[in-house]
Specification:
The protein has helices spanning about 10-20, 30-40, 105-110, 120-125, 150, 155-165, 190-210, and strands at about 25, 45-50, 50-60, 65-80, 85-95, 135, 140-145, 170-175, 180-185. About 35% of the residues lie in helices and about 40% in strands. Strand 2 (about 45-50) and strand 3 form a beta hairpin. It has 7 helices and 9 strands, in the order H-E-H-E-E-E-E-H-H-E-E-H-H-E-E-H. The chain has a domain at about 30-145 and about 170-185.
Length: about 220
């Protein structure tokens, strides 16, 4: 079983001090460590390709070894209602396999029958997408961060995260000097959105108490 990579108190303090300056820098080395811990069936490598990153990997699919790579660029988090969405662009995608690899997928790759110009559409057509991916078309994937499993299954946590990000959120993402730079902004959805998100977070415990199905 893969070991878990944890954020130690010193790192948390460092990120907190950076946030006060409106910017957080995450070394790509930390991301690589995380990918190593999570990757059991897929070997992944990430390198800076400013303003985004390039991800390369190798996996077995339908009995064939598949080597893939793509450039990944991400925009900031959009705050709107009960959604916190991030738009991710996949471009410069490549797929390759061995000359003697068996199976229909390997044949399609060798024959140039797979549309690597629109990798998001390809992913959406080939794989059952998790609920957090609300759109996958062309070169773009849109993720709702509030539908991440750890957040989505806890309503109180979800409303708390929504309230917090309505006051301070990531407005831009850029890779420089082998680190991911997150630019932070105040009231990304405006004062009205912040007030509504705060009201939802405040009322959720009361609703759980008054609504019979919500009481322990």
């Amino acid at each position: 079983m893969a070991s878990r990579v944890r954020l130690d108190p010193a790192q948390a303090l460092h990120f907190g001090m950076q946030a006060l300056g409106g910017r957080i820098s995450i070394p790509l080395s930390a991301v690589r460590d995380r990918l190593t811990a999570l990757s059991e069936q897929v070997a992944l490598r990430i390198e800076a390709a400013s303003p985004g990153v390039r991800i390369e990997g190798k996996a077995h699919a339908l009995g064939a070894p598949i080597v893939f790579s793509a450039r990944v660029d991400a925009a900031g988090v959009r705050v709107q209602g009960e959604r916190r969405t991030m738009r991710i662009r996949l471009s410069e995608a490549t797929l390759s396999t061995d000359d003697d690899a068996p199976g229909p997928l390997a044949d399609a790759i060798r024959g140039g029958k797979i549309d690597t110009e629109n990798p998001a559409t390809l992913i959406g057509n080939m794989l059952p997408l998790p609920e957090m991916i609300i759109e996958a078309e062309g070169q773009y994937i849109v993720i709702d961060l509030l539908k991440l499993p750890a957040i989505a299954r806890d309503e109180r946590l979800r409303t708390a995260v929504a309230a917090a990000t309505s006051y301070l959120s990531v407005t831009g993402i850029e890779v420089a000097d082998d680190a991911i730079e997150l630019r932070l902004g105040l009231l990304p959805g405006g004062p009205k959105e912040a007030a509504l998100s705060t009201a939802r977070a405040a009322l959720t415990p009361l609703i759980h108490y008054l609504w019979p199905g919500g009481r322990p």
